[in-house]
Amino acid sequence: MSVLIRGGTIVNEDGSSRADIRVRGGIIGEVASYIAPAAGERIIDAGGCLVMPGGIDPHTHLDYPFMATRTADDFFSGTSAALAGGTTAILDFIFPENGQPLRDACVEWHRRARPSVADYGFHIAVTRWDDQTESELRDLVDREGITSFKHFMAYKGGTMVGDDVLIKSFALAAKLGVLCLVHAENGDLVHYLQQKFVAEGKLGPEFHPLSRPPEVEGEAVNRAICIAEAVGARLYVVHNSCIPAIEALRRGQMRGVDVTGEALACHLAISDEVYRDCDWVFAAAHVMSPPFRPPEHQEALWAALASGVIKTTGTDHAGFRAEDRLLGRSKFTDIPNGTGSIEDRLHVLWHLGVNSGRLTPEQFVRVTSSAAARAFGLYPKKGLLAEGGDADIIIWDPAGERTIRAADQHQRTDFNLFEGMRVRGINRMTISRGDVVFEEGELSAREGRGEYLPRSANPRAA
Ligand SMILES: [Zn+2]
């Protein structure tokens, strides 16, 4: 069945115009200032609304076992929440277990992702380097279209890798035209500070951010950029949270390194005061890495996003329930790290970004969708409303209002980072590859309708 969206204003990252869109067979068939309705097609009135590309969240952890527990959302609940909030595609991370062949881990992630209702792709986490790793990675690039390698410079004794692995992996990525991702925190320094606080009997969640000060991040971002620069790799720094990280990115970009970065909706919205709340559960519910920062870092993140030093936004969605946080009741280093915002990213960015004048609607599209589509090899199939692209569309009412509440969410966490935030600008409808999957507060997506997104490598011209 074809769908005609009439009377709205189409917003792409490079401009806006009053136009109608016809969707047929899951694809955008026609965009024109006026399209006459055809017999039998569904007509959607978008008068007064903005018609924008569906969001792309390049950073999620669904159905992921971590720190003695498991994330609250699986691929069904997580992608349902994504669709409700206007996000139509996600990229999740494959983590091989100790010694597990990468191919087996990939098979396992395909199994977990099968119930997805939104489209999904994978990054592969490079957590070790042995004789097999290069051929295993080449296999995932060639046969699975996994064209981004993720590296952890933190979580010592867990997923952290040293510079030796970064160098080998970045060099391979450069050869294959694959994008390198880093979680940039100096893991040895974090470990030292954690041990120090624990030895001093400083055990509460308020010591979590103090064990990961901005220098920890700035040093690691700079180191990753220098390694990428030396071996000619393209680099993407996930979840930049502070001024030293932004400064390192800007310096790298100014000398021509192919590096960009991501900011998380929660880091833009929330400051470190949450860790000093006298309610332990509330403070612990904000434990994630990097941690929330003092307000001056938030302003710097907004500025970096508007100027393009940081190009994308994600969520690092890894929600836990209150009972999971209790694992760290006796010391903060055992609190599972992660927060969830897959459902609220677009609303928070619109409300705090566009309504305040920090971002234009076109920049909103860029930072929620188009830039991620380009960085991860999904553009122009996704991230752009134009003939021939996937019909991943949101119909956004800039005057609509609602209050974000955990009680109303589709995420399975019992907590919401933005609880009580009254937002203006709401998602009225989500269309995913031509299917109306969310409409006026109701989800109607069939389990398993999401499609896997293989991506192509982008070898740099010699
Ligand atoms: Zn993450």
Descriptive overview:
It is a single chain. The chain has 462 residues and is an alpha/beta fold. The protein has 2 domains: 3-52 and 385-399 and 423-443, Urease, subunit C, domain 1 (Roll); 54-375, TIM Barrel (Alpha-Beta Barrel), CATH 3.20.20. 32% of the residues lie in helices and 23% in strands. The protein contains 14 helices and 21 strands. An 8-stranded parallel sheet has the order 8-11-12-13-14-15-16-17. A 7-stranded mixed sheet has the order 3-2-7-18-19-20-21. A hairpin with a 2-residue loop joins strand 19 and strand 20 (435-439). The chain is globular and about 70 Å long. Bound molecules: zinc ion. Zinc ion is lined by residues 59, 61, 316.
Biggest sheet: strand arrangement: 8-11-12-13-14-15-16-17
Helix content: 25-40%
Q: Largest sheet, described in full?
A: 8 strands, parallel
Average pLDDT confidence is 96
CATH arch. level architecture of the largest domain: Alpha-Beta Barrel
The CATH topology of the largest domain is what?
A: TIM Barrel
CATH superfamily of the largest domain: Metal-dependent hydrolases
Enumerate the distinct ligands.
zinc ion
CATH class of the largest domain: Alpha Beta
Portion in strands = 15-25%
| Low confidence ranges | none
How many alpha or pi helices? 14
Distance between the termini: 46 Å
What's the helix and strand layout?
Elements: E1 3-6, E2 9-12, E3 15-18, E4 20-24, E5 27-32, E6 42-45, E7 50-53, E8 55-60, E9 65-66, E10 69-70, H1 75-84, E11 87-94, H2 102-113, E12 119-125, H3 133-144, E13 148-152, H4 163-176, E14 179-183, H5 187-199, H6 207-210, H7 214-231, E15 234-237, H8 243-254, E16 259-264, H9 265-269, H10 280-284, H11 295-307, E17 312-314, H12 322-325, H13 345-354, H14 361-375, E18 393-403, E19 422-432, E20 435-439, E21 442-443
Parallel strand pairs: 1-6, 2-7, 8-11, 11-12, 12-13, 13-14, 14-15, 15-16, 16-17
Antiparallel strand pairs: 1-4, 2-3, 4-5, 7-18, 9-10, 18-19, 19-20, 20-21
Helix pairs in contact: 4-7, 7-8
Bound molecules: zinc ion.
